[in-house]
Amino acid sequence: MSAGGARKTGPELEQRAFGWLWLHLPSLGGPSCFLLLLLFALGGMSRKQDLLPPPWPDFQGGDAVGTAMESLAPSPAPLPARFRSSSNLGFLALHKRCLLLLLLLLKYEPSLGKKTFLTTPVILQPDDSVFYEDFIHLNVLDKRVRNDTEISVTYLCSKPCIVTIEAIASLEFRTGVSVYKKSWENNNHLHTTWNQTVNLTFPSSMVFRDDFVIKHSLIVHTVILYAWLSHKQARVPHAKQEEGYLQAIARDYTLLDIVPPFERPHKDHKVCLKWSLEYTWRLQANRIPWCPHETDAVEILNFPYASSGEMAGLVKKFPKFKNRELERIRKRQISSPNFTVSIWLYLLHYCKKPLCGILYFIDSKEMYGSPAVFLNDEGCVHIQMHLVNGEDTAVKTTFSLPLKQWLRLDLSVNGEQIEIRSVGTNLKIHQHEIFHFREDFYYNDTSGYLALGGSTYSPGIEGYFGTVKYYRLHGLETERISNPFFSNEVLKRIDAYHQKCPAIQSIASKYGFTLRQGEEEQKCIRDNYYLEMKNKYGGNLKCAEIIWEKELIGKHNSMSRQLQKADLQLPEAIFGRKLFVTTLQNLSKDDGLHYINSSLQSLMDSSCLGYHRASYVLGVIFEIGLGMPTDPLQGLLYSLVAAQGGDRLALMNLGYKHYQGINDYPRDLELSYAYYSDVAVKTPHDQNTAEGDQAFVEPVRLQDDELLKAQTRESGDLFMWLKHEAKRGDAAAQQRLGQMLFWGQQGVGKNHKAAVEWYAKGALETGDPTSLYDYSIVLFKGQGVKKNKRRALQLMKKAASKGLPQAVNGLGWYYHNFQRDYAKAAKYWLKAEAMGSPEASFNLGVLYLDGIYPGQTGRNHTVAADYFYKAAEGGHMEGTLRCSQYYISGNLARFPRDPEKAVVWAKFVAEKNGYLGHVIRKALNAYLDLSWHEALLYYIFAAETGIEVSQTNLAHLCEEQANLAKTYLATDCVWRYYNFSVFQSNAPTFAYLKVGDFYYYGYQNQSRDLDMSIQMYSQAALNGDAQGFYNLATLLEEGYSIPSDILDHLEICRSLHTSNTALRQQLYERCCSLSNQESISPCTFALLYFHLRIFCSVWHSSLIYFLGSFLAFALVAFVIQCFQRLLRIRSQVSSICGEVPTDCSSPDESTKASGMAEPEVHPVPNNGEEADLNPQRPSSSS
Q: pLDDT tens digit string along 933-987?
């Protein structure tokens, strides 16, 4: 470095220049920087002196940056000797300068919009230091945004200028919208203040309300009115508004006031409207739409749900947001999702299959969407996401979820990040994991539906769901999620139950092991050398047998006795079943319900050992108070436990309670469908197996004497008579016997082997087409007989040749399942469908659903759904189940989402389950055997599942055996179950009449409710019951009115609604039309009496009194007139007789004296010839 005043050498000046470039390079523009660097490099190449490379730049003036750079630079190493020649040194200096140039270029980072914090104006700005006499000013008196708003603009131009006014609006979904603009020139009035008046005109949708022309009035946030002045020669042609405003010589602006849409006036369009259009518009002209509060937080589940691990679960569908802002956010997040799912779980087992469903979306194409959360067989969480490019990606947690404890699983998605957390009941995080992805997720929760648990595509978890919350638009942290542990006591009881049961299972297992060990030592000792040696020299088994015995004999006495009797090779669940059967047999005896309290422990032990029919029975006992006070919480606990264990009756019980919303269960159609579909999925399989206690479900009412007489058993007269006829070769008897034994009908238990014998006899001996078909089916499936496909096919073809539709459908089934010949299968199924076979319709739907229909490519869900619907209309169970799935998902336009219809259809299938039929059969047999305790017990079990026939039968039984019901039931049996039955879709009319009478008279402690009574009677009338019409007419007689909506349902003309008399006549006439025409019914007498009363009322009216008085007066007048005429006639006759001789006056005496005959008396003539002899004729004629 040279001294301060010495002249700088070339290298030193170069170093100074280089330092200056280093510091000021970022602030220079791109072209200037590149030019300077290029000159610097060329200058270095042209100079021939000082070829040694300069040291690292030394910046003078104490520059801190230069010091820092110098300290960071490495010290230059000495050059080798071969580089010290002049040529080599020059070449090295050139390369050194090029290297420095490259470093400076690397330091320079072009600014292309990224990480830019300062903006550089590209439009020349006016110099504020120069004084301008030009100005412009806006004068706005009324700042409201209205049409034809008058403003004035005051301005002065020093040169020819252009004045511009523009209004810029910010709307709901757009900003910076020009809604008004006007410009004019000023060439003459220079250096003079000038005032210009302007009328602002805005779009009609901004200043007027909605009407028949303006469909949507715009929501405006702000309107700014700009005014500016620019000289002609300085004006940039075609400049944008913001550029023209910034270039202006003078400018001004003002903010206008917004008028809300419903405070704006209506526009006079000056058009003539149709009266209908004008009337419609006036109806809604002054209505202000109200937008309800809407949030993205959705509570999917707020009540415990028991998941049995089957292919059934909860289905939810999410609509689009009504709030346009939320809907806009949702659409924006389709490719960059932000959402959170929070689920309370209680897991009993890990998945027995590769994956079990926790929560997942199914899109409109029936494919997995985002997210899809599963549990695998190791207890880890499997998370799958659908990508924007159409592919799928999945991750698995490194941690596994704990068993038999409540935990909350929180899944948050924020863009390309997935965070999953396991939280305990104290809301402390136990496990936590974050996954990062580079792909964009595709997330649209309005397309398709959400499944919780199982579905058609995946089994559910084995356990329980608590509260489930879903935040549709926000990926939240644990602290911000509002989903605390249930305050409901039932969740704690679920945990206590599952913590208690392992101890009981351990007792049964160890006790059974000990007994097996003792038996093994007593058997085959001589045949086994090792066992013989062990028995001879080995020590005795050491275990705490005495402790177990004391515990068993004490609290679990019944279980102890059952274990001692049981087959020791059986698992604990079989022990539980045997214990349950023994307990129920004791309760079914005469006076067996007296011991229900002492039987509770045995039922609890059976439940813990895994036989969950005992759990269902416990739930019913606690809920209705059978032999004890009611305990709803304990009843709910055991109902959930039984449903989780897969008991059909418990699943139907919970489905029915959630469907009706009774007994403090929330009405939740999706939850009801989850339970009903669980049973419905199993029902077709249950019907085709002979395992378990099953029977055909038959709706036999206790009030129907004919059906009761038709019930029989294997030893009954009807069965024996059918058997006798079948042996004689009667085809109908053989067919009926086979069906009764195969399906378990009319009180006969299932016996596939015996049924096959009668099928074979009817098929081979009589050639009956139905028997041929039935026998071929059992030969195909090997049910009760060894499989023989060849023989089965021959019989099937023979039955089809006789025109049996089921056999034609069976041939299609054969070619589909065994030959895989879909063309032939479709041919036979089309033929069978034309013959009216619902099974064929279902099978054709399966071909379309699987995409294997001949001549068709790909799946066709729409056509398949049409065939399934046709099969369902014919009563086909699987077709009905498919349609219920379509109704709950709403994925097809042909089946819009209808949860209630889905529940009704799934309920229809579930109520055909054979296990339920067995319970109903047990109840009916007990009733026929006059075993009242057993009948009451089994009818209660069936009625609590929601079967209408069992509910009415139980109410009837409680009416007949009133003392029995009052003794053992804490609830009013008659009131409860008749009320349950009338809210079923297939309730009988007599139940409506019963409940109507209860409300009319006031049943026991219930108060009168005439409104409910009218509803019940009208429902009976709608079902075609004459008594319903009669009761409604009676209520009218008593002065009560019937609501118009009920009369509309009864299809009574509205013109009769206001006339009580006309209504009564109409009701009585309908009553007569529905009554038995062969005999005189009460309705006939009522109608006759009604007409008589009308006649009497008319007879006693004032009009009749007036007419009667007038007729009486006329009659009296007529009688008086006749009497007067008679008097005149007599007087005339007397005068005539006075002119005759005296002897004529006494003819009798003359006759008697002379003894002559009586003279002939001639009548007075009426003809004209003797008119003169009849002086009274004119009077008589008159």
A: 999 999 999 999 999 999 999 999 999 999 999 999 988 999 999 999 999 988 9
Q: How far apart are CA 861 and CA 872, in angstroms?
A: 16
> Are residues 314 and 221 part of one domain?
no
Do residues 358 and 476 share a domain?
yes
State pLDDT tens for residues 510-526.
655 544 544 444 444 44
Domain that residue 1048 falls in: 988-1094
Kindly provide the residue ranges of all beta strands, DSSP E only, lying in 975-1018, ordered along the sequence.
none
For 378-519, list the strands marked E by DSSP: 380-386, 392-400, 406-414, 417-423, 429-436, 449-453, 462-471
Residues 244 and 151 in one domain: yes
3-state secondary structure of 527: coil
Domain check: are 140 and 101 in the same one?
no
Report the CATH number at residue 448.
2.60.120.200
> Of 462, 487, 512, which residue constitutes the final position of a domain?
487
How many domains does the chain fold into? 4
For residues 997 and 1009, what is the distance between their CA atoms, to the nearest angstrom?
A: 10
The encoded tokens of residue 578 equal 């045997």
What proportion of the chain, given as a percentage, has pLDDT over 70? 75
Query: 434 with 475, same domain?
Result: yes
Last residue of a domain, one of 204, 229, 263: 263
The predicted structure's pLDDT at residue 1136: 63
CB atoms within 10 A of CB 1165: 11
> Residue 1111: what pLDDT?
78
- The answer to whether residue 121 sits within a structural domain is no
Non-local (6+) Cβ contacts of 67 within 8 A are 59
Helix, strand, coil content of the chain in percent (nearest 5): 50, 15, 35
Centre a 10 Å sphere on the Cβ of residue 297 and count the other Cβ atoms it contains.
15
**Mean of the per-residue pLDDT values of the chain:** 79
What contacts 802, CB < 8 A, 6 or more positions away? Answer: 769, 772
**pLDDT at position 1012, please?**
92
Peptide bond into 371 cis (omega under 30): yes
